[in-house]
Design goal:
Layout: E1 2-10, H1 13-20, H2 25-28, H3 32-37, E2 40-45, E3 48-49, E4 65-66, H4 69-77, E5 81-83, H5 93-106, E6 110-112, E7 114-115, H6 118-121, E8 125-129, E9 132-140, E10 153-154, H7 159-172, E11 175-181, H8 192-204, E12 208-212, E13 220-223, E14 226-229, E15 234-237, E16 249-256, E17 261-269, E18 276-278, H9 283-297, H10 299-312, H11 314-318, H12 327-334, H13 344-355, H14 357-368
Parallel strand pairs: 1-2, 1-15, 2-5, 3-4, 5-6, 9-11, 11-12, 12-14
Antiparallel strand pairs: 1-16, 7-10, 8-9, 13-14, 16-17, 17-18
Helix pairs in contact: 7-8, 13-14
Length: 372
């Protein structure tokens, strides 16, 4: 069985206009032959579906949506399934979730990782493909989209819960695929935590792990003979002139379950024209993947790269702690012209609240439960 997994899909701007006109071929026609050859093809559906009147979720960050044509386009291209565990599935509340599930069911697209409540969102997808049974487990890092026992949304990353899901799936399926949505946006490497977690999923019994979310592609490794893909990049996410050179490239990963062989199909997406087009010359891509893989394989180099990246992001993450109240002052702080006004004592207080798991539980509850 050959499985294809594609990354972040959000039909917006020029792509949305073409889809609303029914012109799916203009955008996805170049990759349809590859997708259609797969025994099972999966894409990350990273938005809500809206028909009119849905209210945006109150959250930090953008609320994104598409029409039913966004679902129809994936079916036209040959996809069989969409993953729904991501940070935008709940962007338009319960109705946006229900619309997406209804549209997928209508167009015979399997879903995994999202649902009307946590029980539905965390359900393992079992699919008979030919003579084999495939199990798909889908989860995402915690943002505002997470389902609860009583509310709709996405399945949260919880290595303990995923461990038991993998154990269950190992007893029911011939092949267990874990798909995770997470990582540092626009950084082309996994964090050491991600590497450790995904290797743990293999240790628990998964046959492959695939990741997306970063809006740029990363490398991969074989751990104990099984593939871990650390970032597919955008699949179809039209945003012109935004982080050119990272945003506009990605790849689909094909896994041959008989051998665990991994094949990459790199492409340009919405670069110049609103289309997903396979690379004519992939030499530069292969060289870059090789460099990323070399860092991923070396824990010391990966930790060093992560620490360097975190240092670069220090002021951006410290900004919300500062009392600067307008954009001009914030920009001066970001450039290092204005100093931090947060005392060392307060930094240590915040570190204690965030580092210690028990304190963090209370801290997160305090920040997210305003009406209690």
């Amino acid at each position: 069985m050959k499985i294809i997994v594609a990354g972040d899909y959000y039909p917006r701007a020029r792509v949305a206009r073409l889809f609303d006109q029914g012109d799916y071929a203009a955008v996805l026609g170049y990759i349809k032959p590859i997708v259609s050859k797969a025994d099972y093809a999966i894409a990350n559906f990273e938005c809500a579906v809206c028909k009119g009147g849905e209210q945006p979720l109150e959250k930090f960050g953008p609320n994104i949506k598409c029409g039913v044509s966004g679902v129809e386009a994936l079916k036209w291209a040959g996809f069989h399934c969409v993953t729904l565990a991501n940070n935008h599935f709940l962007d338009y509340g319960k109705r946006g979730v229900e619309n997406a599930l209804e549209a997928c069911q209508k167009h015979a697209l399997d879903t995994v990782g999202g649902g009307k409540d946590l029980q539905a969102a965390s359900s393992v997808l079992y699919k008979t493909v030919g003579s084999k049974t495939l199990a798909v487990i889908n989860c995402c890092e915690h943002e505002f989209s997470i389902a609860t026992e009583h509310t709709a949304g996405s399945n949260p990353l919880n290595p303990i819960a995923q461990y038991y899901d993998i154990i269950e799936a190992r007893g029911k399926a011939d092949y267990v695929l874990v798909i995770v949505h997470g990582g540092h946006e626009l950084w082309q490497l996994p964090s050491p935590r991600m590497k450790q977690t995904y290797q743990f999923f293999i240790d628990a019994g998964a046959d492959a792990v695939v990741n997306h979310h970063q809006h740029c592609f990363s490398g991969y490794e074989y751990y104990k003979g099984k593939p871990i893909v650390y970032g597919l990049g955008n699949f179809c996410f039209d945003r012109q002139h935004f982080y050119e050179g990272l945003w506009e490239y990605g790849y689909m990963a094909e896994i041959d379950t008989a051998t665990n062989a991994l094949t990459l199909f790199p492409y340009e997406q919405c670069k110049g024209q609103p289309t997903v087009r396979l690379m004519d010359d992939r030499q530069e891509f292969d060289e870059q993947i090789g460099k990323l893989n070399a860092i991923i394989a070396d824990n010391g180099r990966l930790k060093e790269a992560a620490n360097s990246y975190y240092s670069q992001q220090k002021r951006r993450f410290a900004m919300p702690l500062q009392p600067y109240s307008n954009n001009f002052l914030r920009k001066l702080f970001m450039k290092g012209i204005l100093p931090s006004l947060v005392s060392k004592k307060r930094e240590l207080f915040l570190a204690d609240r965030i580092m210690m798991e028990s304190h963090r539980d209370i801290f997160v509850h305090t920040l997210t439960h305003h009406d209690e």
